[in-house]
Write a structure and sequence with these properties.
By secondary structure, the chain is of the alpha/beta class. It folds into 3 domains: 121 residues, no CATH class; 99 residues, Nucleotidyltransferase, domain 5 (2-Layer Sandwich), CATH 3.30.420.10; 173 residues, no CATH class. Helices cover 55% and strands 15% of the residues. The strands form 2 sheets. Strands 6-5-4-7-8 form a 5-stranded mixed β-sheet. The protein has a 3-stranded mixed β-sheet with strand order 1-3-2. Helix 3 crosses helix 5 and helix 13 runs parallel beside helix 15. The protein starts with 11 loop residues before the first strand and ends with a helix. 23% of the residues are buried. Bound molecules: zinc ion. Zinc ion binds next to loops.
């Protein structure tokens, strides 16, 4: 669809000549016979490009009926595009390297460069950019240069599903140079289709004149048979990662079950928090004002010096624990070597021990519970479980927007602020 330019667009005018003006048929010097105007966006503003078209003055020469366009036009903008190369690359880079959404790209182009482009067009530009990127990746000359000093290569193949429901993308990588060689989406990965990819890898290795020393993949039948057929005598090692994952499967299943049980047991955080916040509101309303008006760091220090330290610091500690525990039960990180459920059990155990230390401290020193000593003890206790819950807190929904993981204290303050604002 042609791009619609507003009538009052202020174009910068660029003129472009043909460089080689000798007629390709008879060698005469060609004349300018016409001008072609085209318009596109650059990052510096809209441009009107005037292309001077040449043809041979000799009416009998085949070069007379055929016009020649300036050679450099294609280096400024691709044919029929409403953007120059700079804008195209800007879009492609934001998409492929920074993973921006089309809406985000569209918004930023408008905000920063006043370039209005439809989402459809941006989608199309991204496709073209990807095509060029792929072509560049597969450039045989670039590949040859990279592999000049390599004597033996290691190939691997694996299927991955970029999005659920899409066909699986089979990727062939070379491991010594850590480079994707090529990829192909296969709707049904039959042995024949997979073998075609392996044969393709063989052709490319041969074109580079490199010896394949090893293949690495999982134990999918099509890989095993295809590699054996195309690369007889080349060792085929099963990928450690897949192997480990398969071995760990029953463990992970049990682990996931244990996690569900733990989550069932650790419940009612919200209720505890609400109760604490309610009490805070009733007993020390000025703290609420503090938390609202001061930055979180100051607010965490505030309660320590506030006039009613005992009730207040107890409330902060309880909220700390709630934030920490919420982080722990929402944390799904961990692989076969340190399953999520194990991590959860360890973290919860630390919290339990920490609470116990606080309780012991209170029993032993209740008469001096208002002294600095008890405060040190309670902050020390929360500091004890902090390193472990730091990552959990970072995963929890309450703090996902934070640049840096929240400490339990800060998390608690956030909750307090949220609670008091409504
Ligand atoms: Zn001619």
């Amino acid at each position: 669809m042609p791009y619609h330019w507003p009538k009052d667009t202020d174009f910068a005018r660029w003129e472009l000549d043909v460089l080689d003006r000798d007629c390709p048929f008879c060698g005469r010097r060609m004349h300018i016979c016409d001008h072609r105007y085209r318009h596109f966006h650059t990052l510096e503003g809209p441009v009107e490009l005037v292309c001077k078209l040449n043809h041979c003055p000799d009416t009998a020469c085949p070069g007379h009926a055929k016009t020649k366009s300036p050679e450099l036009e294609i280096t400024i903008a691709l044919p029929k595009m409403a953007v120059g190369w700079d804008v195209l690359c800007w879009i492609g880079h934001r998409r492929c390297s920074r993973h921006w959404s089309i809406t985000q790209i569209q918004g930023e182009l408008w905000d920063q460069y006043a370039i209005p482009i439809s989402a459809d067009s941006i989608g199309e530009y991204i496709q073209r950019y990807q095509l060029m990127l792929a072509a560049h990746q597969e450039d045989p000359e670039a590949l040859r240069l990279q592999y000049e000093a390599v004597t033996e290569i290691i190939l691997s193949i694996d299927g991955l599903q970029p999005e659920k429901g899409h066909e699986t993308l089979y990727v062939v990588r070379e491991l010594t140079q850590k480079r994707v060689w090529f990829a192909a989406p296969l709707i049904s990965a039959t042995a024949d289709e997979v073998r075609r990819l392996i044969a393709e890898a063989k052709t490319r290795a041969a074109a580079l004149n490199k010896n394949v020393g090893l293949w690495v993949s999982d134990r999918q039948d099509a890989f095993v048979t295809g590699i054996a057929a195309e690369f007889p005598g080349v060792p085929h090692r099963y990928c450690e990662n897949h192997f480990l994952r398969d071995v760990a499967k029953p463990v992970l299943e049990a682990d996931s079950h244990a996690k569900v049980q733990m989550r069932k047991k650790v419940r009612g955080l919200r209720k505890i928090e609400q109760t604490v916040l309610k009490q805070q509101r009733v007993s020390v309303p000025e703290v609420r004002v503090d938390a609202d008006t001061e930055p979180p760091m100051a607010a965490t220090v505030g309660p320590m010096n506030s006039p009613t330290p005992e009730a207040d610091s107890a409330a902060v500690v309880i909220l700390d624990y709630c934030a920490a525990v919420r982080g722990i039960v929402n944390d799904d990180q961990g692989g076969p070597l340190h399953p999520p459920g194990m991590r959860m059990a360890e973290a919860l155990q630390e919290v339990r021990e920490s609470i116990q230390r606080n309780l012991d401290e209170k029993k032993g020193g209740s008469q001096r519970s208002n002294s600095p000593g008890s405060r040190v003890a309670s902050t020390a206790a929360s500091a004890k479980f902090e390193p472990n819950t730091r990552r959990s807190a970072a995963m929890s929904k309450t703090s996902r927007k934070s640049r840096r993981p929240l400490t339990p204290k800060e998390g608690a303050v956030r909750l307090a602020r949220r609670g008091s604002s409504n």
